[in-house]
Amino acid sequence: MSTIRLFSLLFLFLNPTNAAALIQNRQNPKGISLSTDNTSIIFDSSVQLDGVPLRFKISAPASQFTSLTNVPGAASLPNNPGPLGVNVLLHGDGGQSFFDFPNQKVKNHLGVVLLAPSTNSLWGQRTGQASGLSRPDGIDDAELVRDFVKEVLPQLVAFNSKDVFFTGVSGGALLLSGFFMPAHLQEFDGAGVLLLCGGMPPQVEAVEGFEGNTRIHYQSTTNELELLKDSIPEAIRAYEGLALAGGLSEEKVGRLQTADNSLEGGHCEFDGEGFVSGIQFLVDNFEDIMLEGGDGRVNGVNVLTSVVENEELRFV
Question: What pLDDT, in 10s, does the model give residues 26-75?
């Protein structure tokens, strides 16, 4: 578990103008602003975990923030549970989805995005260029995500710790499926993971116990990247196998784990038009896909197909 530099954390929150001097990051945090729909507050800041700077954004109603954030109207106490869940999104290689913040509109879940602590904004590879599925720093980055959500986030905003979801986009999906899920997901009771245009089987030993209550959905498109056409089905088979080995029936596995690649388009183009608009479109449908009772319809297609006997997705 990483050591959180609380003295730096408090100094940063109470002195937002000194953020750039305190923590060097690829781009400086922007402080406090309004969401695009003007219904929630976006808090953009940074924290150091074991000396590693991690920039983040939180979108939430003002009253749910704690006084540590200096958000006007903040009314919560640190580590105080709140009524809303949280959806933590990890961007793809390059960081586009961090800056777009597609999950900033608050419904039943607060929105959080994290920026990979690397010069090129790559999850699992802190130095150099991306090399396909190779993520040599995946273990460290997965622990960074875990520590932020478990230790830092409760100090900044109130949320229901038993209603935590993770969304991974492309390279972010590789970090979640390859490293975070097998090592840390069992610490989040009843959690769910939405893997968008990416996925690979566990790259570390899976800790026993997480598969029993874990909701997982894999969403890709008809014309996925070549290297992902193999790794996504491999991830599906691996996590299905873990659930079955853990004693779940095929019927329950089919309810918890679903996969689809019937949406037409290229990599992450879930709307058939573009990368950015496609991700926004899919994230806008997050609750219909991931929450119990959602209809699972995206672009008129029911994407909630059980992974059982559907492990081998057919791509163009």
Answer: 557 989 999 999 999 999 999 999 899 999 999 999 999 999 999 999 99
Handedness of CA 99, 23, 174, 240 (dihedral sign): negative
Euclidean distance between CA atoms 41 and 58, whole angstroms: 8
pLDDT tens-digit map of 267-314: 999 999 999 999 999 999 999 999 988 899 998 889 999 999 988 888
- Give the Cα separation of 90 and 115 in Å (integer): 7
Domains defined along the chain, listed by start: 6-302 (3.40.50.1820)
Return the exposure string of 11-43: e unless at least 16 CB atoms fall within 10 Å of the residue's CB, then b: ebbeebeebeebbeeeeebeebeebeeeebbbb
In whole angstroms, give the CA distance from residue 83 to residue 125.
35
- Whole-number Å distance between alpha carbons of 173 and 199: 5
Determine how β-strand 301-302 pairs with β-strand 257-263: unpaired
Cα 72 to chain centroid distance, Å, stands at 27
